[in-house]
Amino acid sequence: MELDANKLLHEYLPDKTNEQLGLSFNGGDRIIYVNDEVVNKLGYSSPDDIISLHPYMLSPEYQPDGQLSSIKALQLIEKANVTGKCDFDWSHQKLDKTIIKCHIYLFSLNDPRYSANMFAVWEFYDN
């Protein structure tokens, strides 16, 4: 089935559809949908600037705990795939290299009706 992001988001997160969110597929491999809230918060001009990136590509090289963002992101994605969901604090890097902190709720759908199988909801902290 082709991805219908609005239908999927209303079905799985009816109370979160106004939050900053993105949607990725293949276990979190690449972002295939991102709403304007995330685009604006990260300083990009269009969703096309973010779509097809891996989520860790929007992050500084290292997280505050000293772990490489690329490795930690993959570990957290795997955790969500195994347990169905996880949430965690994360540091993203805006286009201008400013660090922005957020809390991420990561959900694994495991639903064969959709080509997408994972999505994230971001709650950005005011820095």
UniProtKB/TrEMBL annotation:
Q: Which domain of life is it from?
A: Bacteria
Q: What is this protein called?
A: PAS domain-containing protein
Gene source species: Thalassotalea algicola
Organism placement in taxonomy = Bacteria, Pseudomonadati, Pseudomonadota, Gammaproteobacteria, Alteromonadales
